[in-house]
Design brief:
alpha/beta, ATP binding, globular, 10 strands
């Protein structure tokens, strides 16, 4: 079976103050194979991030199924899974790269990357080595490793997000504009790492505005407009 199968996914938002309902994504269906990379493009507000957040279960879908073939649980509908199952999957199997940095208070950059491995019960020494290698790969200067990331620039924060997720080599990785504030040299590093992860059977769904970046990385690309896939 597919690693991930999405069937008739829909999500609306209700604005209580205005007594108004807004449609986000509607009747979205697609499969993701093991080791495949699917790209989703479209204008801002078209519903791209909503799809990723429903898969990650940041949002609860209004309708539809999101069946993920988990290594731990077998086929599980992420739209109906328990909170315990979702927390386990986020820790061990599903990674999410956001445009926005979310770090525990008084946690340094290196500690943040290490934490991704430590919560998987990795040996602390190995976690530290892997974190340093990933930070160096994304060209975050060693002088920043022991600093709190709230002082970082937008590009530095995004690189830290990438390092935190990719150091785990997740089975399924969701990428929400992973190159939004990066220079061209760093984009090439991201592209190379994505190809490396693909070659080790990491499956990915990514949202992009940079169509040139997607070439040679994505196996399939879907265009979304007004919440629905279009040809």
């Amino acid at each position: 079976m597919a690693l991930l199968k999405i069937d008739k996914l829909s999500k609306n938002f209700y604005l209580h103050a205005q007594d108004r309902q807004i449609s986000s994504c509607q009747d979205i269906s697609f499969d993701l194979k093991q080791g495949e990379f699917i790209g989703i493009v479209g204008l801002s507000g078209a519903g791209k991030s909503t799809i990723l957040k429903c898969i990650h279960r940041t949002y609860l879908p209004l309708t539809g199924e999101i069946v993920y073939d988990s290594r731990a649980f077998g086929p599980v509908n992420l739209a109906a899974a328990t909170e315990r199952e979702i927390l386990y999957l986020r820790k061990y199997e599903i990674g999410y790269v956001s445009q926005f940095l979310n770090v525990m208070p008084r946690t340094t950059a290196k500690e943040h990357v290490m934490s991704a491995l430590l919560e998987m019960n990795e040996d602390p020494a190995r976690a530290e080595t892997a974190a340093e290698e990933m930070l160096a790969y994304f060209r975050l200067p060693a002088a920043l490793w022991d600093i709190y990331p709230n002082t970082f620039s937008g590009g530095e924060r995004l690189r830290l997000n990438l390092a935190h997720t990719m150091v785990k080599h997740p089975r399924l990785m969701l990428l929400d504009e992973p190159t939004a504030s990066l220079d061209n040299k760093t984009k090439l590093l991201v592209k190379d790492m994505l190809i490396r992860l693909k070659n080790t059977e990491t499956s990915m769904i990514g949202i992009f505005h940079d169509l040139e970046f997607m070439e040679g990385v994505c196996d399939r690309v879907y265009n979304i407009s007004e919440g629905a896939f279009v040809c």
